[in-house]
Design a protein that fits this description.
Strand order of the largest sheet: 22-30-29-23
Helix content: 10-25%
Strand content: 15-25%
Protein name: VanW like protein
InterPro entries: Glycopeptide_resist_protein (IPR052913), Vancomycin_resist_VanW (IPR007391), YoaR-like_PG-bd (IPR022029)
Number of domains: 4
Distance between the termini: 136 Å
């Protein structure tokens, strides 16, 4: 398809145009038929300056907006009188009103040119009428005025003829419409060519001009001044840029005057002096504790532990050095301002330090509460707490360090309480209902009434899962109900062993009646918070701790161990042993339990059935309650020893008494010495103890479990007893003396199903039992009373000085 045409250059009188392939060119008049060119008007001599050839009159631009499918119009032959401008009678130059722009030179791709009879302009006194239609010239056509060469373009700009203004007017119109297509013509339609100025000049004798090789590239008319303007502007910008860069270079090494860093004046100082000034003035402040504040709470941070370090060099570098930033130069002109120092931050250390401070600065929220004071409900309103926003607080510390005169304010956020005002108000209303009146309890045929003061003491409000929950103390309410009834409850009777005919039998085990505290709390609580002030409570059965069934499962079926020791002739001592046997008899040691003889016999007092018996303490006579109970310890110890039980604690006498096995005996002293063993079998161990036939017996009923073997080393390192003379002591009691002192070791081997499970040894040293002499006569009396010495008091009556 055709190329777009210049609206001011595609009107011509006989030029050529490039036709579209789809639109054949219109017929043209052969060159031979063109009328002869009339002689040019007379003008100045040839030696004079070349005379400008008048350009053809411009024709109106037709509309080229028609569709390309429209067939091309037939070319209209140019009329010579219409294509030749009128010449001025005085100068021979064409009148300004007759000027028309030159047509472009046809492109090589244009259609063949047709020669018009109006190719040479002829002077005419009247302007030619516009052609009815004109076809646009080819877009690549070079303007005819350019083709005429310098001869047609060298007229001075101050020429006062009408020629030059017309050219300028044409150029202005051409510049404004050069890219606009000619409306009304189809694309590629053939056009008439306007004769070139050069040709017209030649025909009129105006001389020949060389073709301009740049014709059509830079526009028609006088040379453009834009390149010179652009070059000049560019040089000016380069000069300005150089001056600007030089000014920045001159101030690059100094800090702008008036500049302060965290209150330290460094304005006008060279970079190195500014660094030194910051280090000397800010350095001490950089190691001081950093005060922080969150709401009303205050605290401090150690800069070193928080990972904060002043970088004086980086601070000065940000204020000096070469840069093209105009703000820097403006600071040097107008003066600097306060700037923050550059801080190196260890984010891990800062996070830890701020997190620790946040915990101490946090304010816990206050939950709403309700309590009873003097029987009346009192509410505490809730209040928000505050928490430090740790991430934002870190940034606040970094930006505020060294530049904030007071504590650095850390950002916080509110922490709502778990119990808000609505929860508190609801609980208060419920509390008021609780004490609005008494609650009547219907239980066991009785109707005790619980007054408001009892309900208030038994009611509390507990925060639970974001709610304020009303709770009732079931134990307190149960006691209040029982206190206001008569014989409402019956205690259960625990099953236990008794000996009948020398064998154990199970007795007791009856259930009792009681109240379930949880049920009481639920029933009374429900009535207390409602208008129905009556609570129904049921009595429930209470099983004994030990039932007949549970005792039967313990395997108390046979005697697995027993031991006995002889009594002395002292009757008070024997009474104490009888009482001790009564307390031990029937004691059940369940599997894994530990038996303590002191706990079983206590309290060893007259009120518990014991008697005071005379004792001799290192030859000094005195009285003691419970004398003789160490024989109970020896007898019980040996029963547990042969049952294979674990020996937890026992202590031999300081002096050996021949009625006890050497090294395998025990004593007790309340507060310091006890006899204990643990039942380490899967069966229960029932203790049976009694005094019969001048002997004290202890038996253990259970199921056979261990096999026990025992032996001893015999007496070793014997130390003979001697006599101590206390004749001058008025309280002296003569003592005939006892056994010699010696060392002995007792061995025990315990087997379980033939496998040795315990291999033990127990070493002990006895002191010699020295005699005491008071006087010859009293010594004889003491010998008569002592008899054969079998009734000498043991360690329970005779306290050792080394115990």
């Amino acid at each position: 398809m055709g190329q777009p045409n210049d609206g001011d250059e595609n009107l011509s009188d006989g030029g050529t145009t490039a036709g579209s392939a789809a639109s054949p060119p219109a017929p043209t008049t052969p060159a031979s038929a063109a009328p002869a060119t009339p002689p040019a008007p007379s003008g100045p001599p040839a030696s004079a300056a070349p005379q400008r050839t008048p350009l053809p009159q411009r024709r109106p631009a037709p509309d080229v907006a028609a569709s390309p499918a429209t067939p091309p119009a037939a070319a209209t032959p140019a009329v010579s009188s219409a294509s030749s401008p009128s010449a001025s009678p005085a100068t021979g130059r064409p009148a300004a009103s007759a000027f028309a722009p030159p047509a472009p030179i046809a492109s090589p791709s244009s259609a063949p040119a047709s020669t018009s009879s109006a190719a040479s302009p002829v002077a005419s006194p009247a302007p030619a009428p516009p052609a009815p239609a004109a076809v646009p010239a080819a877009p690549a056509a070079v303007p005819a005025a350019r083709a005429q060469g310098p001869a047609a373009q060298d007229a001075p700009e101050d020429d006062d003829t009408p020629y030059q203004p017309a050219v300028r007017a044409y150029e202005q119109r051409r510049i404004g419409t050069i890219s606009a297509p000619v409306a009304g013509l189809p694309t590629g339609a053939p056009t008439e060519a306007i004769p070139s100025v050069a040709a017209a000049g030649a025909g009129s004798g105006g001389g020949t001009a060389a073709a301009d090789p740049l014709a059509g590239l830079a526009g028609d008319g006088a040379p453009s001044r834009w390149p010179r303007v652009l070059i000049g502007a560019g040089l000016g910008l380069v000069i300005l840029a150089g001056l600007y860069a030089g000014a920045q270079w001159l101030v690059a090494d100094d800090v702008a005057k008036g500049t302060t860093v965290a209150g330290v004046d460094v304005g006008g100082l060279p970079a190195d002096e500014a660094v030194a000034t910051l280090e000397s003035d800010l350095g001490p402040r950089a190691v001081e504790p950093v005060a922080v504040q969150a709401g009303d709470a205050t605290g401090s941070l150690d800069p070193a532990q928080a990972g904060l370090t002043l970088d004086a060099q980086a601070t000065v570098d940000s204020l000096t050095g070469f840069t093209l930033d105009p703000a820097r130069l403006l600071e040097h002109v107008l003066g600097g301002d306060e700037v923050a120092p550059v801080v190196d931050v260890d984010r891990s250390a800062l996070s830890a330090a701020v997190g620790s401070a946040a915990e101490s600065l946090a304010k816990e929220p206050v939950d709403g509460t309700v309590r009873f004071t003097g029987g009346e409900p009192v509410a505490t309103d809730p209040a928000d707490g505050t928490a430090v926003v740790v991430d934002a607080a870190q940034d606040a510390v970094v930006t505020g360090w060294l530049v904030t005169s007071g504590p650095i304010e850390l950002p916080t956020e509110p922490v709502p309480p778990a119990i808000d005002q609505a929860d508190t108000d609801a609980a208060l209303a419920e509390a008021e209902q609780v004490v609005s009146g008494p609650v009547t309890v219907d239980v066991g045929g009785q109707n005790p009434e619980l007054p408001a003061r009892v309900l208030a003491r038994s009611t509390s409000f507990v925060a639970q899962d974001g709610d304020l929950v009303t709770t009732f103390d079931g134990d307190r309410l149960t006691s209040a109900v029982v206190d206001r009834t008569d014989d409402l409850l019956t205690e259960p009777d625990d099953a236990h062993f008794e000996f009948s005919g020398g064998e154990p039998v199970i007795v007791g085990g009856e259930t009792g009646t009681t109240l379930d505290p949880a049920q009481v709390a639920d029933s009374v609580g429900a009535a207390a918070v409602s208008t129905e002030r009556t609570a129904a409570v049921e009595l429930v059965e209470q099983d004994p701790e030990d039932t007949r069934e549970s005792l039967a499962e313990l395997g108390v079926d046979e005697v697995v161990s027993e031991f006995s020791t002889p009594l002395t002739s002292e009757p008070i001592r024997t009474k104490n042993l009888v009482r001790g046997a009564e307390l031990v008899d029937g004691t059940l040691v369940k599997p894994g339990e530990t038996f303590s003889l002191v706990e079983t016999l206590s309290p060893i007092e007259v009120s518990n059935g014991y008697f005071a018996a005379g004792v001799v303490n290192n030859g000094i006579h005195s009285d003691a309650v419970g004398g003789g109970l160490s024989q109970m310890a020896t007898t019980t110890y040996n029963a547990g020893f042969f049952a294979g039980f674990d020996d937890v604690e026992h202590r031999q006498h300081s002096y050996w008494f021949s009625r006890y096995p050497a090294g395998r005996e025990a004593t007790i002293y309340v507060g310091s010495i006890d006899m204990k063993f643990t039942n380490d079998t899967p069966y229960g161990a029932l203790m049976q103890a009694y005094v019969s036939g001048g002997r004290l017996y202890v038996k253990i009923w259970s199921t056979e479990y261990y096999d026990v073997e025992t032996s001893d080393s015999g007496k070793q390192n014997v130390v003979p007893a001697s006599t101590i003379d206390r004749s001058g002591d008025p309280g002296c009691e003569p003592y005939p003396g006892g056994e010699d002192g010696f060392d002995i070791t007792v061995y025990r081997k315990v087997y379980l199903e033939g496998e040795l499970v315990k291999d033990e040894s127990d070493y002990w040293r006895y002191k010699p039992d020295d005699a005491v002499s008071c006087s010859a006569s009293r010594a004889e009396e003491r010998d008569d009373a002592a008899g054969d010495g079998d009734d000498r008091p043991d360690d329970t009556e005779k306290k050792d000085e080394d115990d």
